[in-house]
């Protein structure tokens, strides 16, 4: 039996593949195709050196060369002799990984595109001068590998994280159905949202950590308080000084007090708390009371100030007690308790005198606090001045001009004799406006109008830099318009002069109101 009869009449196997590899030509390939069906070539890694396949019946001719790969040819399947379909596969046999076109073609692989990122073809070996040019066989698997997408980035690198987060493709995405499109875009969008949210949360935590550290340096919170109380105090400081929003600051201050009251209950009451804890609690209570009073929470402010004045003298000194009585009187007046307010203001005068050194303390009657002649005297403290001014204002509200006028005149005389660096033109204008109102109530309308205009001129010196001067100017110009209209035509003036004066005053009033609205906006 020769080689060809061996191949034709033997079952497929290694011997048949060897015979085909040794003596197969183009004509014998056709014969084999009609007898055994489609041939499959599987490339594996090199195990044998370079071999040239030639035909014994014809002149020398190169069929194929395998330098980097060995060729193992198996005759697979038993198809019909007239079957020439490239897509038809054998039944119950191993998968065909290469078609006849790739096995028996002697052509070169197609050229690569310029922008093709896939790996290139296998490199050709070095050719000798007398050696014919060889050709490399490309299998179906190798062709698919050349057209495959680039490999995934190395895990752990920034390219891998970027690919992992922003990739919106998956194994089902190639189907391009509405469900898979929605599914993978939803997953991709979720990844982006999670990444952006995680970044924003980290930025917020970093900013809050830096803000907490800065606030602790500006205004340290007591370590004896609970962590939540300290956090509330930090937020209160933030909204009171860094980003002014007094209503929110007052709310956080009240939360801090609530947390401390729960802590006090755990200790067993006020007496069981340490002196350090009590002192820090009193300071926080005073701050929260002031914030509540600024945002017109008069009930809360009154309650907080009342708790302040009820504490021992060791925790609340005379100055803090005077300020607490003054705040409590202001809150009581705002709630309509004017009679109670004047008593509280008198207590504020009393404790302000106690806070003054004995050798500098003036002789005063707390019911009618008229300051003596300031010559050769030490100027009174600011707390004493504010308390005396509050008593005078309260008398004027009670329509007692006889009691309030001496208080205002003595106070204005004292303010005008202060050193230049201590003078407050806004407070002086405020006192002048009240003097004009009190004199007007005493039926001295001309003098009252003069004092009111003088107060307006004094307040105009600082209305562009200080809010207190602006408030005083608004109050004085409103009184001046009313007084000028009621006085009417007097000796030396005509109705046209009065109308012109009222128009000028209204112009000032509109300008001041516009400035106030601009600041609020």
TrEMBL record:
<protein>
    <submittedName>
        <fullName>Uncharacterized protein</fullName>
    </submittedName>
</protein>
<feature type="compositionally biased region" description="Pro residues">
    <location>
        <begin position="108"/>
        <end position="126"/>
    </location>
</feature>
<keyword id="KW-0802">TPR repeat</keyword>
<keyword id="KW-0732">Signal</keyword>
<dbReference type="InterPro" id="IPR019734">
    <property type="entry name" value="TPR_rpt"/>
</dbReference>
<feature type="signal peptide">
    <location>
        <begin position="1"/>
        <end position="17"/>
    </location>
</feature>
<dbReference type="InterPro" id="IPR011990">
    <property type="entry name" value="TPR-like_helical_dom_sf"/>
</dbReference>
<feature type="repeat" description="TPR">
    <location>
        <begin position="322"/>
        <end position="355"/>
    </location>
</feature>
<feature type="region of interest" description="Disordered">
    <location>
        <begin position="106"/>
        <end position="126"/>
    </location>
</feature>
């Amino acid at each position: 039996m020769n080689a060809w009869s061996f191949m034709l009449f033997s079952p497929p196997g290694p011997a048949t593949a060897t015979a085909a590899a040794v003596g197969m030509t183009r004509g014998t390939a056709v014969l084999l195709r009609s007898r055994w069906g489609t041939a499959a070539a599987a490339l594996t890694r090199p195990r044998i050196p370079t071999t040239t396949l030639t035909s014994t019946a014809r002149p020398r001719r190169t069929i194929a060369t395998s330098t980097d790969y060995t060729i193992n040819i198996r005759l697979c399947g038993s198809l019909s002799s007239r079957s020439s379909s490239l897509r038809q596969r054998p039944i119950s046999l191993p998968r065909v990984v290469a078609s006849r076109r790739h096995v028996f073609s002697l052509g070169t692989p197609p050229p690569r595109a310029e922008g093709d990122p896939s790996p290139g073809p296998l490199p050709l070996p070095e050719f000798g001068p007398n050696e014919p040019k060889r050709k490399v066989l490309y299998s179906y698997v190798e062709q698919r590998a050349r057209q495959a997408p680039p490999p995934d980035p190395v895990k752990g690198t920034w390219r891998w994280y970027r690919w992992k987060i922003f990739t919106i493709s998956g194994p089902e995405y190639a189907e391009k159905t509405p469900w898979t499109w929605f599914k993978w875009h939803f997953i991709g969008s979720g990844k982006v949202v999670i990444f952006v949210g995680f970044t924003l949360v980290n930025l917020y935590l970093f900013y809050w950590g830096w803000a907490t550290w800065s606030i602790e340096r500006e205004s340290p919170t007591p370590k004896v308080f609970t962590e939540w109380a300290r956090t509330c105090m930090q937020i209160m400081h933030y909204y009171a000084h860094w980003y002014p929003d007094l209503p929110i600051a007052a709310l956080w201050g009240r939360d801090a007090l609530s947390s401390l009251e729960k802590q006090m209950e755990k200790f067993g009451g006020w007496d069981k708390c340490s002196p350090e804890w009590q002192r820090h609690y009193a300071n926080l209570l005073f701050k929260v009371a002031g914030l509540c009073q600024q945002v017109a929470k008069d009930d809360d402010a009154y309650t907080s100030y009342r708790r302040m004045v009820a504490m021992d003298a060791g925790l609340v000194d005379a100055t803090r007690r005077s300020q607490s009585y003054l705040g409590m009187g202001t809150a009581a007046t705002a709630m309509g308790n004017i009679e109670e307010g004047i008593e509280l203001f008198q207590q504020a005068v009393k404790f302000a005198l106690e806070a003054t050194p004995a050798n500098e303390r003036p002789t005063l009657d707390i019911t009618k606090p008229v300051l003596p002649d300031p010559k050769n005297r030490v100027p009174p403290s600011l707390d004493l001045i504010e308390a005396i001014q509050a008593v005078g204002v309260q008398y004027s509200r009670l329509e007692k001009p006889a009691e309030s006028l001496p208080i205002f005149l003595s106070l204005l005389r004292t303010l005008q004799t202060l050193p230049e660096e201590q003078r407050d033109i806004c407070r002086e204008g405020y006192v002048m406006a009240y003097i004009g109102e009190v004199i007007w109530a005493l039926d001295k309308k001309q003098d009252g109008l003069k004092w009111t205009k003088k107060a307006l001129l004094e307040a105009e010196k600082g209305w562009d830099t200080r809010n207190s001067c602006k408030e005083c100017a608004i109050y004085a110009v409103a009184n001046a318009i009313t007084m000028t209209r009621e006085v009417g035509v007097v000796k030396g003036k005509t109705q046209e002069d009065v109308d012109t004066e009222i128009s000028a005053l209204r112009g000032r009033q509109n300008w001041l109101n516009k400035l106030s609205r601009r600041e609020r906006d």
